Amino acid sequence: MADLVTPSLGKVTASKTLDGHTGFIWDVALSGNGQILASVSNDMMIRLWNANTGLQRGAAKDNGHSNWVRCVRFSPMGRFLATASDDMTIRISDVNTGFTYRMLQGHTGRVRAVEFSPDGRTLASASDDFTVRLWNVSSGSLLKTLNGHSGWVRAVAFSPDGKTLASTSDDNTIRLWDTTTGNEIHRLIGHESSIRAVCFSPNGKLLASGSQNKDLRIWNTTSGALLNVLQGHSGPLRVIAFSTDGNLVASAADDLTIRVWAAPLGFACVRVLTGYSGWVRAITLSRDENMVVYTSDDMTIKIWSSA
């Protein structure tokens, strides 16, 4: 596989392959300090790894989910893990003990995604019941139910200041919500099929979205205006990630490629990474961009690290 160029360091190279899951790995996440890697799968297990050595931190954790686990996120301080499952629950677990700190119930469909707010006090969840929900992390209480989507909700993302939440859906729309009032701020229309991925730029001024119709779109979060339509993928998009400095956007699709787009060049595609053996389901970068982790349908996790 080609080396991956990252904005800050220039280059990272493939260093480790992690094996252990017995089903498709839906998601991976790195702790804020880049030391711990969490992964979740169809096998209903949550595995924790030492991100530097690639060794598992103890046995795989069964934190009570009774169906596929779709999403995993670390809290900003790294103490807790939130997991979303097809069993319609969200669980918040202690990273060190695996103990389920809170079980959040109320969705009436599969929960596909969760995200912590930047301050770690609120958790957002996206479900097949067409709703987005905001939860108090400390108490586990439901704060708000955001209604408006008319299809499965696929992804959620907080703005860097935590004041806005983006959600994407099979209704082909992206909605921006005021997290304080729960009111809809903007409805972004333009995608022609289900929108699977969404990500804010580090300064919160831009939003990137990717859909099954193979294009990546860039939006102005203040006005809701569409700024760019980026084409080049030949398969549905699954994952989008901004670089820490906001100059690059990486997108992964079912065409078995990752494309890197440069914002200063009008979001021109500057790199295409190939060599994958299955759909890339998740990508995560360490904050210093010394490490890039991805997982695909071959049931392994790949780690790239700087030399």
From TrEMBL:
UniProt name for this protein: Mitochondrial division protein 1
InterPro entries the UniProt entry points to: WD40/YVTN_repeat-like_dom_sf (IPR015943), WD40_PAC1 (IPR020472), WD40_repeat_CS (IPR019775), WD40_repeat_dom_sf (IPR036322), WD40_rpt (IPR001680)
SMART domains assigned to the protein according to its UniProt record, in alphabetical order: WD40
Family: Belongs to the WD repeat MDV1/CAF4 family.
Free-text function comment from the UniProt entry: Involved in mitochondrial fission. Acts as an adapter protein required to form mitochondrial fission complexes. Formation of these complexes is required to promote constriction and fission of the mitochondrial compartment at a late step in mitochondrial division.
Pfam hit, one: WD40
GO cellular component: mitochondrial outer membrane; nucleus; transferase complex
Taxonomic lineage: Eukaryota, Fungi, Dikarya, Ascomycota, Pezizomycotina
Main location: mitochondrion
SUPFAM superfamilies noted in UniProt: WD40 repeat-like
KW NAD (keyword) present: no
Repeat among keywords: yes
Membrane topology per record: Peripheral membrane protein
Gene3D superfamilies: YVTN repeat-like/Quinoprotein amine dehydrogenase (2.130.10.10)
UniProt subcellular location: Mitochondrion outer membrane
WD repeats: 18-54, 62-103, 104-145, 146-187, 188-229, 230-261, 273-307
Keywords of the record: Repeat, WD repeat
